[in-house]
């Protein structure tokens, strides 16, 4: 009797996202618009590689269309918008929150990339729950926001008036998220925060803002494995940084529904921060941040004047 190895429970999650991104890439290529198709092609490669690693079957990528791109008519753009927003509603976020931790980071960055495209195309994602981290990730995330606030405050102060507005908007988002978490966490006492580089002139202020947002996105992304597979708590919000939420293993029976709020918080944050990064003149592509370790913004050095 031949032994049949069990199917990895992560495969259906990766395969479903691969199908969504493949559909989006086909529409984006057909319309020949922006760099959506290029980024989504890179997403497909990453998802296919992960699927093969998990032992899943990978369909060959369709060949590029030889026909001339369609005009970006309202109907065509509506189709692309719908495809970008697939499974980003409440049900889709619950599915994302159910994924095994080992694929959570790639699925989160892939979903956030599509969410960013959805908003760039004029869509508006809604129905987000209140900011809700997991106890394990919340304090780390709060410290990241606290550090990012300092960096963005410096950038906004040093930026020319013409480029200050998008930095100020990013700072507003960070302040709002920090306030939402301040009920549960307090910043660790620091002697100061170091900047990633010395500002030589006003132009460096925008570069600083983009670098700070990159680091914060990396920190958010790194928390994805801690935000999946959680049971929905009977009460909310968290009462302290030491509160615990029972975790479940992939495929195990659950007495409570999966709690989508922590992963929804990360998805919403990544989408918003990427929008601010783009508004500041940074790249739209989130994929290069996938393999990065979160960088610490804290330091024992006093902040520069």
Key attributes of the depicted protein:
305 residues; mainly alpha; two-stranded antiparallel ribbon; 9 helices; 2 strands
3D architecture notes:
The protein is an all-alpha fold. It has one domain. The protein contains 9 helices and 2 strands; from the N terminus they run H-H-H-H-H-H-H-E-H-H-E. It has a two-stranded antiparallel ribbon with strand order 1-2. Helix 1 runs antiparallel to helix 3. The longest helix has 24 residues. The C terminus is likely disordered.
Topology, number of strands: 2
Q: What are the secondary-structure elements, in order, as H or E?
A: HHHHHHHEHHE
Terminal CA distance reads: 73 Å
Overall mean pLDDT stands at: 81
Number of helices: 9
Task: Return the structural class.
Answer: mainly alpha
Largest sheet: 2 strands, antiparallel
Global Rg: 20 Å
Q: What does the overall shape look like?
A: globular
Strand order of the largest sheet: 1-2
Helicity, as a percent range: 40-55%
């Amino acid at each position: 009797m031949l032994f049949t190895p069990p199917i990895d429970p992560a495969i259906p999650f990766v395969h479903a996202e691969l199908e969504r991104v493949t559909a989006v890439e086909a529409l984006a290529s057909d319309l020949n618009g922006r760099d959506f198709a290029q980024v989504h092609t890179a997403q497909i490669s990453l998802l296919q590689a992960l699927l093969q690693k998990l032992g899943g079957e990978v369909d060959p990528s369709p060949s590029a269309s030889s026909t001339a791109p369609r005009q970006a008519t309202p109907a065509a753009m509506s189709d692309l918008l719908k495809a970008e927003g697939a499974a980003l509603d409440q049900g889709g976020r619950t599915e994302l929150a159910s994924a095994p931790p080992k694929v959570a980071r790639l699925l989160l960055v892939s979903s956030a990339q599509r969410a960013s495209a959805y908003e760039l195309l004029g869509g508006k994602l809604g129905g987000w729950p209140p900011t809700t981290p997991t106890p394990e990730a919340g304090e780390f995330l709060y410290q990241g926001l606290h550090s990012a606030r300092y960096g963005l405050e410096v950038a906004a102060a040093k930026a020319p008036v013409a480029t200050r507005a998008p930095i100020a908007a990013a700072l507003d988002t960070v302040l709002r998220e920090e306030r939402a978490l301040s009920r549960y966490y307090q910043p660790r006492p620091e002697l100061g925060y170091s900047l990633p580089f010395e500002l030589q002139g006003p132009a460096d202020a925008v570069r600083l803002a983009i670098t700070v947002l990159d680091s914060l996105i990396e920190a958010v992304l790194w928390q994805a494995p801690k935000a999946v597979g959680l049971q929905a708590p009977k009460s909310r919000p968290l009462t302290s940084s030491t509160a615990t939420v029972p975790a479940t293993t992939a495929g195990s029976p659950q007495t409570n529904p999966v709690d989508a709020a922590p992963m929804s918080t990360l998805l919403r944050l990544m989408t918003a921060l990427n929008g601010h990064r783009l508004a500041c003149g940074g790249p739209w592509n989130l994929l290069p941040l996938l393999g990065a370790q979160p960088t610490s913004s804290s330091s024992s050095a006093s902040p520069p004047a």
